[in-house]
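Continuing from the previous page of notes. For each protein in this section, the sequence appears first, followed by its structure tokens. Read the first protein now.
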Amino acid sequence: MLDTNDLPPLRYRPAAGTARTGYPGLRPASKVLKRGHVHREGVLPLQCDVLFEQDAEVQLRDGTRIYVDVFRPVEAHDCPVLIGWSPYGKQFGPLNLDTFQHPARMDVPRQLEDGLNMFEAPNPSYWVSHGYAVISPDPRGIFSSEGDIHLWGEREARDEYDLIEWAGTRAWSNGKVGLAGNSYLAMTQWFVAAQRPPHLAAIAPWEGASDLYRDSSCRGGIPETVFSPAILGTLPGERRIEDAQVMQAEHPLYDSYWRDKAAALSRIEVPAYVTASWTNLVHTAGTLRGWSQLGSTRKWLRVHNTHEWNDLYNPANVEDLRRFFDHVLKGLDNGWQATPPVRLTVLDPGHADVVYRAEDTFPLARQELLPFYLTAEGSLERATPKQEAALSYDSADATGIKFRVTFDRLTEITGHVKAKLWVEAPDHDDMDLFVTVRKLDAHGQVQSAHVVTGASHEGPNGRLRVSMRRLDPERSRPELPVHAFDTVQKLSPGETVPVEIDVWPMSMRWHAGETLELTVNGVDTLVRPELPQLPALPTLNKGAHVVHVGGRYDAHLLLPFVSPA
């Protein structure tokens, strides 16, 4: 954790405003919403009477006032409290599951939301019906809450810390606060839990990046200038917002600005229910890093095979989360302790996935790391090829170059994957590289993992700007290169350099006759199912890229093979 006095000054821009949201302004009130009430057309009727305290004022340590909605049982006291910290707006936010251009709402029926819930947050009435209080805040700068909007890091975490302590000291609270929610609401949990608020008793990060630079804003050292602005540009406020794009441009290297936006995971001591998937294009690596580096000894990981929103509102998963919170926030002896530390899903496109296989940890202790070497013929071989070759592709062509290996038996690859390449840019002094691992069936057709209706995932991927290739030797492992991102090393004419690219974690099976294919190219081909209309990620590529293989060039794909338990 960093002292905010040591951070660079923030740049701000005007926030998006609130006029388009229909926001009516502050309306402090306390009322009972009756069981069966339908808050919005088509949603789940309330499952019990809910005491709704609207726009309650909370004063933060610096005197700033924010406003929260509190949902709690009408009569009960001694309630554990759940908070979802969200900048999207607690009632009138511009984002919801209908905002995104997916006809099936990512397979989340409206009947699975109660209409009181924030975007990517739990349904308050469900939890109130089980004796919990739920708090939905408008953080600093959102709608009528005072101040400027800050994005992740220590500044925002201090505000959430203050709300946790406010909630834990209410007369109706049992003094134990849990955090819940998906995506942004998961990311902030890592940061505030590292500050150890006294009344924080549990977290449940549901797919959340833990290092903003590495996971999202500058993954592989390549600035992300498409998805994040589309989301952050919607945050509703009448004052200012931290200008993430300007800060990204002014801080291209991993400096104190970005260190502040990497959670101090080892400081987290409270019990944690961590949810991940292999198919998330923002959160997969950061969630699994969070799980691995948590300081808590009481932590559980569940890796699913669908989309984050579909998984969040699935009734079976809601019940599973309640068992966790009932155990750690209410002290119930409900058998939760017998839950396996890891419940792992193994994707098997074209066949049936293996869902929630019990494991002790991740990565798996029984993994065997094996290199497969790239050859001039486009194959992946266990033996180092003696023949040297220079293979080139047009950096503007998504086809790139491909390397394949066909398995003769059922094969599972689970864990971290690394691609080591030797590369050259004859027409430029830098390169943006993209690598993807895919599964082909016996007929050579790509087998994609089903995510939700109309959306699939072709396989794990990695990326790297070659000038940012320097590794952090203290943090890197053979299968997991960690880049320092603190030095720019441009290419000289004719220079060939080795690079190591971390391919995001995976778990997938290949059957006999099926093929693993590695693609290397200069184009980001990923399509976000929530916003398929977004343009491709811009790159700095020019002209041809050359990949050297064989002989002196030990270009390879390092794969974690797993035998049956």
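Done with the first. The second protein uses the same format. Note its length before scrolling.
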Amino acid sequence: MTKPRYLTKSRFKMATECPTKLFYTGKKEYPNTMLDDPFLAALADGGHQVGELAKQYYPGGIDITTLDYDEAEKQTVELLQRDEVIIFEPAIRFKNLFIRVDVLIKKGNQFELIEVKAKSYSATKDKDFFNTQGKIDSKWKPYIFDVAFQKHVLQSAFPKSTINSYLLLIDKTAKCATDGLNQKFVLAKDEINRKGIAVSASLSDDDLIEKLLTKVNVNKAIQYAYDNELTNGMPEHTFLDNIVSLAKYYEADEKIAPVVGKKCKTCEFRCSSEDEDRGKISGVKSCWKQQLHWKDEDFEDKTVLDIWNFRKTDECIENGIIKLEDFTPDHIGVVENKSPELTPKERQWLQIEKYQQRDNSAYFDSDSMRIEMASWTFPLHFIDFETSAVAIPFYKEMTPYEGIAFQFSHHIVHADGKVEHADEFLHTERGVFPNFEFVRALKRALEKDSGSIFMYSSHENTYLNMICKQLNQSSETDKEELCQFIKTITRSTGNSEENWRGDRCMIDMLDLVKKYYYDPATNGSNSIKAVLPAILNSSKYLQDKYRSEIYGSVDGIKSANFKNKAWIEFDELGKVKDPYKHLPKMFGDISDHDVELLSEEDELNNGGLALTAYAKLQFTHISDYERNELRAALLKYCELDTFSMVVVYEGWKELM
């Protein structure tokens, strides 16, 4: 018997991003680069914990746990025979539409449809989800569309009912009522080995007296969506007509004609050449072949999607300017710049020009960098933080998503060129707020001299500002001393109540990369994960230095976590292997594919691997052996982060 092909809320969400994706989803021949285990992402941001917390606000609710469509619908129909009932995850079907509602409250002929999201909401800033132009704010559209789809299905299934729809969101102003609340929602497996959140028997009324979630009516936003949204780039011209049309296409397994654009850059339906050799098909390539009539060899060329931080992608594609070969400065809008620093447009054109000229050499403004370096004070300190932000707070009086700084690494480069891994900090004790011990350890590491301090992105500065605010609200006896230290090495952010710029204000290496350095091997990325292998491959000096086992050796570079390590290895093409590939696998129970995705970082250094590891240490029951192995892996990853910064500095120094 053929399994029914229902348009669900997740498939509808996917189709609103690009309707052609409906044809690719769920098919083995079209690989999907999203996480194999989406539970990991929700574990890291607290999504599942929030879902379970929401249920605690509705006592007497009945949870439908089966994943079987027919059985879930059968149980739902039976429960809805009652005049009043609260159901978690009820299954509602109407023709070829199928939804599981987070919370459904029935009172006679009236329904409350509640969608739970682990997203912060501010009653003053977000209000009714509309922007100043009277349109739905773009950041809220996916959530409004989600509830709008569910309301349509529920209303169609129960046409005589009255439905009020809500988002249940994280209240940014709420304060936790008790200590240790987050430890009462931990990852567990049920009797058939499914992952889920187990709620502690110790959860009490006192824990729930201050609500961390707020219920916000979205009826107005939904009606606006029905009247005004999804009018372009879709099979039909209205929101509700598109639901019907998308469901028909999916049910018939028919492909909707693609419209290529900037959305293709983040499309999950893509695969490597190795996968293609094994018979897999790239959804992205299929779309481009269909609309643009490209052949396989066309994909060997760089395109507009490769340009760093480019805002005119769709405009260029509409005008047929797709390959970098076809670009001129006018397409970028390059203007004369009297400053030596690269502007974003100059950097974009530099990327294009080097590609057009097949120039693989690195751009390096040695004169400007020499001026920068002349202002630095030895010894040089390189630091990197690993952080998290959990939805359900650790302590009483904390607000949701207050930042957690649980790890740092610290390398030093001395005036004579000596390198050492000087300090590290890792705090993973379950249920303990680490921030104040974190900053005390950082202070001990950095207060021994007045040397310049380096970060990679403003992430470290932002977190230290936040910790200063937390200290001011605390009863810590040394809070003034710690805040004074923080202010010496940071600059104030927009959220600060006062303005300052410390005498040792941290220097942002990412900022230096953007202004003075570009290597075509990074393909436009400025992430340290892209810059490191690029500079290793272009610098014979670095290759010669680190091909021997000097890192972690007695007479070489001091290291806390490596012994006699040689970082330079070459692949079959003669390229230096990415040093991060040398590290041990952080998780034994997830796929290599997921590890790869979680290892990716954006320019702001927001890799997901470490924060997922921290979430696992906090919210799962694992053995002492697993815990120790995970801690050891975290220490190695973070040490390599700051060592990478040292290597980039050394590479620049040699270029001068």
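What the second structure shows: Residues 593-599, 601-606 have pLDDT under 50 and may be disordered. The first helix runs from residue 9 to 17. We return to this in next week's lecture.
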